[in-house]
Amino acid sequence: MQPATVDSPVAAGVRRVVKIHGRGDTAVRALDHVTLDFPAQRFTSVLGPSGSGKSTLMHCLAGLDTVDAGSVRIGRTELTGLPDSALTRLRRDHVGFVFQSFNLLPTMTAEENILLGLRLAGRKPDPAWLRVVVDALGLRQRLRHHPGELSGGQQQRVACARALIGRPQVVFADEPTGNLDSRAGAEVLGFLRASVRELGQTVVMVTHDPVAASYTDHGVLLADGRVAAHVPRPTADSVLAALTGLGV
Ligand SMILES: Nc1ncnc2c1ncn2[C@@H]1O[C@H](COP(=O)(O)OP(=O)(O)OP(=O)(O)O)[C@@H](O)[C@H]1O
Q1: Is residue 165 part of a domain?
Q2: CATH number for 135
Q3: Does 179 sit in the ligand 1 pocket, CB within 6 Å?
Q4: pLDDT for residue 172
Q5: Cβ neighbourhood burial of 237 (10 Å; 0-12, 13-18, 19+)
Q6: In this predicted complex, what is the ipTM?
Q7: Which of the residue ranges 4-18, 46-60, 126-140 would you say has the lowest mean pLDDT?
Q8: Which atom of ligand 1 is found nearest the CA of 31?
Q9: Reduced to 3 states, what is the DSSP secondary structure of residue 76?
Q10: What is the pTM of this model?
Q11: Is 61's C-beta closer than 6 angstroms to any atom of ligand 1?
Q12: How far apart, in whole angstroms, are the C-alpha atoms of residue 234 and residue 218?
């Protein structure tokens, strides 16, 4: 199996990032001088109460939103100040996404969904890597199915394959198990963990769920737009205790 190409020990990071939503009286400081590094080939969870800034952080990290101060990098590339066209290319070529709601195209087969991003980028899939990803996700028998013919767990596994097929610098997963039952959720989490440990990928996952966080190598807790705590080698209990310590 070929490991991912790693061109930096830090897959993504933010330095003293401030993000303010809205203006004037209704302005909300969603990120308040956040500094974090997400190491390559690690599975990191971002936790915290509702409104603590998790989604905002992910959007800023992925270049989907701009920051008001501070800097953001993906690998060795500084995002702040990049023109939109360069940001779009960076996302397309170096970032994978897994969303709570799967976001598959219903008229395409599972295989077409997996390969769409590469096709749009004019890149050819590496057949060996496609095989590795499809087999790791148990999707071999499902490639010709349309999303409507797949269970939620299978659809999310297709979304994971789509995220990994271009061997991105980092995969951002936003509550990837939020719409799944616990068994399907465990399968997806097990795969994300295996994609890091066995395939050398890097995954950053936003989650509310201490059990989901227990699959990761490191947990970061946000509260009120700030880094409130780190939970190394998280277990469901240690995450719960850290969240409780925040008064959540
Ligand atoms: N587009 C927006 N306009 C105004 N305020 C916003 C906007 N997006 C987020 N916020 C505010 O910024 C803060 C952080 O929101 P964010 O969605 O990042 O939190 P979160 O931790 O992801 O929450 P949840 O777990 O509920 O998804 C919240 O107070 C939220 O109300």
Answers
A1: yes
A2: 3.40.50.300
A3: no
A4: 97
A5: exposed
A6: 0.97
A7: 4-18
A8: 14
A9: coil
A10: 0.93
A11: no
A12: 6
Span 216-226, average pLDDT: 97
Q: Which of 23, 34, 47, 50 to mutate to test the pocket of ligand 1 (most atoms within 8 A of CB)?
A: 50
Domain presence at residue 238: yes
Distance 28 CA to ligand 1 centre (A): 8
Whether residue 216 contacts residue 41, with contact meaning beta carbons closer than 8 Å, is answered with: no
pLDDT in tens, 3-41: 444 566 999 999 999 999 999 989 999 999 999 999 999
Distance CA 68, CA 55 (A): 16
Q: Is residue 33 part of a domain?
A: no
Query: Total domain count for the chain?
Result: 1
142 touches ligand 1 (CB under 6 Å): no
Q: Is 21 in the pocket of ligand 1 (CB under 6 A)?
A: yes
* Residue 167 domain-assigned (yes or no): yes
Residue of 168, 164, 169, 166 whose CA lies nearest to 191:
164
Question: Which pLDDT value is given to residue 248?
Answer: 57
User: Which ligand 1 atom sits nearest the alpha carbon of residue 206?
Assistant: 22
pLDDT band at 160 (very low <50, low <70, confident <90, very high): very high
Pick from 56, 207, 220, 224 the residue to mutate for probing ligand 1's pocket: most ligand atoms within 8 Å of its CB: 56
Letter for the amino acid at 10? V
Ligand 1: does its nearest atom lie under 6 Å from the Cβ of 51? yes
Q: Which domain holds residue 180?
A: 41-65+82-245
